[in-house]
Specification:
single chain; alpha/beta; Inosine-uridine Nucleoside N-ribohydrolase, Chain A; four-stranded parallel sheet; 36% helix; 17% strand; globular; binds beta-D-ribofuranose; binds calcium ion
Length: 307
């Protein structure tokens, strides 16, 4: 099968960086057509610089990076403290980027690439969904041209990580998540239901570090600095699914996001039973199950192949 052509829409972010590296290590499964950046784990200039720094690390500077939205749809925010460190990549001293972002805005790049390649470009938002929502709002004609949106966000059947109700990406821009969920595009959701099972262990890190070269060692250094209280490889699950879908199982559901309640802002509500869906067909395949041991074996093999 030809590799899946994707736009990786991200907010690096240590686990975003790991998702990028995993994609680069699996050209048989994934072709990254562009990287688009958004505010999220850190502010937009930093997420953009971080995407470029990871391209330098991996030697993949031919992949275009487009900076996108510097704030969520409804109101500006400040991002100061993060489980990803001050610079968003664990403060491990990765050099400043050698390259620059393209002049074209991420939203326009998404619209252009989808229109130029109808039915070909899968969108993979692994940060707040602001760029994807803005593209769908600016150019509604692209919705039927997108074969699938595979995203990291939400928590269908469990508590959140940002608040008791909400997962981080949905919490930062719940309105954007809602636009994406109701756009009529085929959706596959990697929420905390599954990604919280991708828990990194010190033994796994030590083993991979000992076997690896400079790229692997940088990846493990970032991981060691990441995620106090939340050391999960959320975003790489999206990419792992293209490499080996048999690692995951899920259920179909109608999923929406709470946008108004101050207590439950960003909460994902997933209706599985017919009586809860009230006549609506499922809008998403919600991934819930993961073979964790096989995922970490895959990550090990692929990371080591980069060095
Ligand atoms: C999500 O939030 C971010 O911190 C991670 O990069 C991931 O996309 C997990 O809730
Ligand atoms: Ca992310």
């Amino acid at each position: 099968m030809a590799p899946r052509r994707i736009i990786l829409d991200c907010d690096p972010g240590v686990d975003d960086a790991l998702a990028m590296l995993l994609a680069f290590a699996a050209p048989e499964a994934v072709k990254v057509e562009a990287i688009t950046t958004v505010i999220g784990n850190v502010m937009l200039p930093q997420t953009t610089a971080n995407a470029l720094r990871i391209l330098d690390l991996a030697g993949r500077t031919e992949i275009p990076v487009h900076a996108g939205c510097p704030r969520p749809i409804m109101a500006p925010i400040e991002r100061k403290k993060s489980v990803h460190g001050g610079d968003g990549l664990g403060d491990i001293g990765l050099p400043a980027p050698t390259g620059r972002a393209e002049a074209e805005h991420a939203v326009d790049a998404i619209i252009r690439l989808v229109r130029e390649n109808p039915g070909e470009i899968t969108l993979c938002p692994i940060g707040p969904m602001t760029n994807v929502a803005m593209a769908l709002i600016k150019a509604p004609d692209i919705a039927p041209l997108i074969p699938e949106i595979v995203f990291m966000g939400g928590a269908a059947f469990r508590p959140g990580n940002s608040t008791p109700a909400a997962e981080f990406n949905f919490m930062i821009d719940p309105h954007a998540a809602q636009v994406m969920l109701t756009a009529g595009v085929t959706l596959t959701m990697f929420g905390l239901d599954v990604t919280a099972q991708a828990l990194i262990t010190p033994d796994w890190m030590a083993d991979v570090e000992a076997a690896g070269g400079p790229i692997t060692r940088a990846a493990i250094a970032m991981l060691r600095a990441y995620g106090h209280g939340d050391p999960c490889l959320h975003d790489p699950c999206v990419i792992a699914h293209f490499i080996d879908p048999s690692l995951f199982q899920g259920v179909d559901a109608w999923v929406e996001v709470e946008t108004t309640s101050p207590l439950a802002r960003g909460q994902s509500i997933a209706a599985v039973a017919e009586r809860h869906r009230a006549g609506r067909a499922p809008n998403a395949h919600v991934i819930t199950g993961l073979d964790t041991a096989r995922l970490f074996a895959l990550l090990r093999e692929k990371l080591l192949s980069l060095d």
